[in-house]
Amino acid sequence: MTERRRAFRGAAVGALTGALAVAAHATADGGTPDSTSLTLVALVSVGLGLTASTVGTRRDGRIPIAGWLSAGQVIAHLVLVLATGHAHPVGAPMLAAHAAAVVVGAVLVASAERLAAVAGSVLRAIRFVPLVPAPAGSPPLTGHLSAVVPVPLLPALSRRGPPSA
After folding, report:
1. Lesser CB count within 10 Å: N end or C end of the chain?
2. What pLDDT digit, counting tens, does each position of 9-40 carry?
3. Considering its fold, how many domains does the chain have in total?
4. How far is CA 109 from CA 21, 39, 119, 138, 152, in A?
5. Which domain holds residue 79?
6. For the chain, which residues score pLDDT lower than 50?
7. What's the CA gap between 34 and 143, in Å, rounded?
8. Is residue 151 part of a domain?
């Protein structure tokens, strides 16, 4: 995996961890987090994104991404529960919401990686199109720019207003 792909994966995992964890937590009646909780989730997301971009990036596909996102969902859930001060048992809706966040996030990141690779190869193909030499016997393409032709400055804004009463 190239350096750019690792950086992209880390950024995507970090961003999706925070966004999906907060959304999943709120969807499952965990409440909307306050600014302190959001700050802590953002710190967890940045840390997880940096770690995901440097550790264990040999494999492509959804499985390693799902592993990082699962770890992120667990850590973000614990941060949200501890920061709000109300410990609650993990119920089925909360577990389902965080699991759905992992699945959606893994599909999104893997698809984005694949699309980025395709877009990169297309851009490389366009950028390195070999130039076709001019046919033999054609006149050389030379030319010069003529002097700039002055255009009379016509008043663009009229100062005349409507008639006064």
Report:
1. C
2. 888 889 988 888 888 878 877 778 888 888 99
3. 1
4. 15, 23, 15, 52, 57
5. 3-127
6. none
7. 66
8. no
Give the integer Cα–Cα distance in Å for 9 and 117. Answer: 12
- Rounded CA-CA distance 79/76 in Å is 5
Cα–Cα distances (Å) from 24 to 13, 17, 27, 98, 145, in that order, read: 15, 10, 5, 5, 62
DSSP of the chain? --HHHHHHHHHHHHHHHHHHHHHHHHHTT-----HHHHHHHHHHHHHHHHHHHHSS-S--SHHHHHHHHHHHHHHHHHHHHHHHT------HHHHHHHHHHHHHHHHHHHHHHHHHHHHHHHHHHHHTPPPPPPPTTPPP----PPPPPP-----SS----PPP-
**Which residue in the block uniquely carries the two structure tokens 């970090």?**
14
Q: How many CB atoms lie within 10 A of CB 35?
A: 7
CB 9 within 8 A of CB 44: no
Q: Is residue 34 part of a domain?
A: yes
**Does residue 11 form part of some domain?**
yes
Query: Contact, 76 vs 21, CB < 8 A?
Result: yes
- Whether 149 maps to a domain, the answer reads no
